[in-house]
Specification:
The complex is a heterodimer of chains A (301) and B (263).
Chain A (H helix, E strand, L loop, with lengths): L11 H37 L22 H8 L11 H36 L1 H14 L4 H13 L5 H25 L4 H9 L4 H12 L1 H26 L5 H10 L5 H29 L9
Chain B lengths: L9 E10 L7 E11 L4 E5 L6 H8 L7 E6 L2 E2 H6 L3 E4 L11 H11 L4 H14 L15 H13 L5 E5 L7 H18 L2 E5 L3 H7 L2 E6 L4 E7 L13 H19 L2
Parallel strand pairs in B: 3-8, 3-9, 6-7, 7-8
Antiparallel strand pairs in B: 1-2, 1-4, 4-5, 9-10
Helix pairs in contact in B: 3-4, 3-5, 4-5, 7-8
The chains are: A mainly alpha (301), B alpha/beta (263).
């Protein structure tokens, strides 16, 4: 007997495929829109002679091929050798550089996440610590990263840290923040009945933390992880540039910016690679979240 | 410890509770409450909102400290009874953990008590049978209706076979028909296991149907106004239509009215 009914389970396989197709289509649409705007602006500029129609006022960005190379020229450049003597195409070179940056960023993400979660747990445990730490955590993000980066590298050199580890620490400086702030909110999110239930089981603080508070914090933590992942790339690139680290995408962007007049397509290519790297880590975290919360019907995405 | 039948399941003696004592926002929730619940007894706490019935339940559960007076559960302090896991608890919201499957929710207290994996899964299957959801162990809570979720919450509260069940309006969010089903089943389950129940409700018919005794509380501060005996023996759906049931419901209603006007 039962007066209750079971809600039908969503046909997971089918909807996942459908969702994938929809997502792919929306990404294609976004790329196509971007390319359309780019080429449209260029066409508009060459039609009007680089000024607003009927005036002598210049367009905000010159639409010539040096300042705005054609999108197909950028793509074509990706498949040219990176230097005259090199075997690698620009695409492969950018991929290798991005991989180098990814490894630094991953280390930065891990360090930042561990510190962020540690701070969140410490602040949860002690109101006194929370009151003391919150202002410092907020102030930390008002210091421009670019001002701090050379200092970290200098310190790193005088210790056991390698240059890439210093860069990871610079990235961690950005990534710990969303994890700490959202982590604390998430750890505090269980309602009073859930906490009373754990107390009724005489559950020690640590077990309540791992069996209730951390799982309940997931809807807060995953958005923070996604943001932290993207920030880890930003922090790593800033760190690479200010530390002068060779091999990463940050250095490549800097190099190609210097050689802009002889090959603007390469700079745009390297910027695309950096953007793709950011999207990649963002997607990676989303994938991990999907796998971890499969079937639970509570995922925020 | 061994327990002879004369040791009460719950003994509340001269208990008062004041929130924010000593400050300007101090609120006296309970004043000088006495209550004895015998083993195997089903006792409901009823009263207007603000009468402190949920507070009293939380004091028995040692989720809140008393301001004065003493509470014994099976002859020991409420704190010791909580540590010894002498009671299970169910709230108005089922409060299932949405990241755990149904069986894992039922096994949560067993995990905390270090039962082995085999014992846990045997116990959760047994409990799912008991609450008539044998095929739902692998479902997630969101796949269940409100009534089914509340059954899982009851299975969870009983999974370690506590001798006492403390329930805070567990059926308050359910529709009338589901609610009556759940009442029938709760009585069948607690009779089978010999569980003592302290049950907070604001429903007159629910308290009359379920209880051996109904404790009517008056508000601000909460005090025991009267206790209505409901000696109706075994209950069934027919009980709800018997004259005696209506008489008892009327008696409870009149006590509540007296409370409202401050008699």
């Amino acid at each position: 007997m039962t007066s209750a009914t079971v809600q039908p389970t969503a046909p997971a396989g089918q909807s996942a495929v459908l969702r994938g197709v929809k997502q792919g289509a929306s990404i294609l649409l976004a790329v196509a829109t971007l390319v359309g705007l780019w080429e449209g602006y260029k066409a508009f500029g060459s039609w009007s002679g680089g000024t607003w129609p009927g005036t002598t006022r210049d367009l905000p960005v010159p639409s010539d091929n040096l300042n705005m190379p054609h999108s197909y020229d950028i793509v074509k450049q990706l498949f040219e050798p990176v230097t005259r003597r090199a075997d690698d195409t620009l695409l492969v070179f950018l991929f290798k550089s991005a991989w180098f940056t990814f490894k630094e960023a991953l280390l930065g993400f891990v360090i930042g996440t561990v510190i962020g979660l540690g701070l969140a747990v410490a602040m949860l445990r002690s109101n006194w610590l929370e009151r003391g730490l919150v202002p410092w955590i907020n102030v930390s993000q008002t210091i421009p990263l670019i001002a701090l980066a050379p200092l970290v590298v200098t310190w790193g050199k005088s210790t056991f840290l390698s240059e890439t580890q210093s860069v990871a620490i610079i990235a961690a400086y950005l990534t710990f923040f969303p994890v700490a702030v959202n982590g604390l909110a998430g750890l505090k999110s269980p309602d009073s009945e859930a906490l009373e239930l754990m107390r009724s089981y005489a559950s020690p603080w640590s077990k309540t933390l791992f069996k209730l508070r951390f799982p309940a914090a997931r809807p807060y933590l995953f958005p923070a992880f996604r943001l932290a992942a993207a920030l880890s790339i930003v922090g790593t690139i800033v760190g690479e540039i200010s530390a002068g680290v060779q091999g990463g995408i940050g250095r490549v962007v800097l190099d190609y910016a210097g050689k802009y007049s002889t090959g603007p397509e390469r700079l745009y290519g390297s910027i695309l690679a950096a953007a793709a790297l950011g999207l990649f880590v963002f997607g990676l975290i989303t994938l991990v979240e999907r796998v971890l919360t499969r079937g639970q019907g509570v995922s925020g995405t | 410890m061994t327990l002879d039948s004369s040791t009460p399941a719950v003994k509340v003696h001269a208990v008062s509770k004041t929130f924010n004592a000593g400050s300007s926002e101090s609120v006296q929730a309970l004043a000088d409450v006495d209550l004895v619940v015998a083993p195997g007894e089903f006792v409901s706490l009823i009263g207007p909102s603000g009468c402190g019935k949920s507070t009293l339940l939380r004091l028995i559960a040692d989720l809140l400290p008393t301001t004065s007076g003493s509470i014994e559960v099976f002859g020991k302090s409420a704190a010791q009874a909580r540590i010894d896991q002498d009671y299970g608890m169910a709230f108005q919201s089922a409060g299932l953990f949405d990241w755990r499957k149904v069986a894992a929710n039922i096994e949560l207290p067993l995990e905390l008590m270090d039962y082995s994996k085999a014992e846990r899964s045997a116990r959760s299957s047994e409990m799912l049978e008991l609450v008539k959801l044998p095929d739902f162990g692998d479902h997630y809570p969101w796949q269940l209706s409100g009534g089914m979720q509340q059954r899982v919450a009851i299975a969870r509260s009983l999974s370690f076979k506590p001798r006492l069940l403390l329930m805070d309006e567990p059926f308050g969010a359910l529709d009338e028909m589901t609610r009556e089903h759940m009442q029938n089943e709760l009585l069948a389950i607690t009779a089978e296991l010999g569980t003592t129940v302290v049950f907070v409700t604001h429903s007159i018919s629910e308290s009359a149907f379920l209880s051996d005794r109904v404790v009517v509380l008056s508000p601000r501060p909460g005090q025991v106004h009267s206790i209505v005996d409901v000696p109706m023996g075994d209950r069934s759906d027919d009980t709800r239509e018997e004259p005696e049931f209506f008489e008892k419901a009327t008696e409870i209603r009149e006590a509540l009215r007296a409370v409202e006007v401050g008699l």
